[in-house]
Structures are given as C-alpha cells and as structure tokens.
Amino acid sequence: MKFHTSVLSLLLTLTLPSTLAQSPVDNALAQFRTLNDRIDAVQSSIDGYSGGLSGVVLALPVANSLYSAHTAASTARTSLSALDPLSPADSQRALDAYNEVHPRLIRALNAGRDKAAVFKDVGVGYVAQGMISNLYNEKNRFEEALRAKVYPGYFQNDLAEAVDAAFQDTLARFS
Question: Which InterPro entries does the entry link to (predicted)?
Fold first, then answer.
C-alpha cells in the first residue's frame, strides 16, 4: 500500500501544472509577460492595417488587439494588487518586468500615431482614440498599483513619463 501511495504522490506531483508551484509574485510577473505579448500583437495589427474601402472591417483585428491588451493590463494589475508589499528583490523583479513593457508600448503607440490619419480617413479614428484612451487609463491604474507594491524609492518616473508622452502624442493625432 505504501508503494501505491508513493507512486500516486509522484504522479500527482509530475502532472500538476507548474503554475501551482509558483509564488504569487511569479504568477503576477507571468501576467506582465502576457501583457508584453498582447502589446506586441497591437503593434503587429496596426502595422498590418492599411485602411481602404473595407477599412472598417479591416480595423476589427486592431480593435481586438487593443481590447486584449487592455484586458491583459487589467489582469496584471489585479494580480499585482492582490500581493503584499514587495521586498526589495521582488520590487526589482517587478520593475524589470514592467520596464520590458515600456519599449513595446512606445513602439505600438508610435505605430498608431503614424497611422492615425488612415484610421480617421476610414471613419474609425474616434473608436481607436477611445480604445487608446482606455488603455492609457488602465496603464495609469497599473502604475498606481505598482507604485503601491514596490519598495519605496524603486519606481522610475522617467520611463513612465516617456510612455505618458507617447500616449498623449498618439491621442492628439486622433483628435
């Protein structure tokens, strides 16, 4: 019977998802990686958008990718908010992960800024502007949650300010 229990225990250990063994901080940081993937998808969908006669229909993948990025940011923020205040080491890990988001976000926003006229010409500029604005608001809520969790003095305002400027510049092009 002892052998049977040991084999069963070993099988359960091998088949349980690895996420169960991760710490809450690791789980939250995994959400940052998902956010990176969603932001990359935003840039890809914007880069592939060309407007034209069927521009409204072709804008749907862009809208979907923006919505997915917003949802990923919200999920990451919720995971982060559920954590206790982070140790200095975990604060640095969280900031390193978040700092990977910044360049991706700036590239995606620059792509949107560069194609704002195309979106506007097709008549979906106001929708894109609203979705970008919603993502900007979520980014601000995310940063607020991050500031509340990281060790005091660790948050770097310069990167956040660069992303703010990119959002504002992109939103202005849609006005």
Answer: Cell_wall_mannoprotein_1 (IPR021054)
Say how far apart CA 28 and CA 134 lie, in whole Å: 22
Tokens of 81: 């908010």
> Cα–chain-centroid distance for residue 145?
14
pLDDT digits (tens, 9 = 90+) for 18-58: 444 578 889 988 998 999 999 999 999 999 988 877 777 87
* CA-to-CA dists, residue 174 to 24, 43, 44, 56, 152, angstroms: 39, 17, 19, 16, 37
Tell me: the pLDDT tens digits for 55-85? 778 788 999 999 999 999 999 999 999 999 9
Query: Is residue 17 assigned to a domain?
Result: no
Alpha carbons 10 and 126: distance in angstroms, whole number = 56
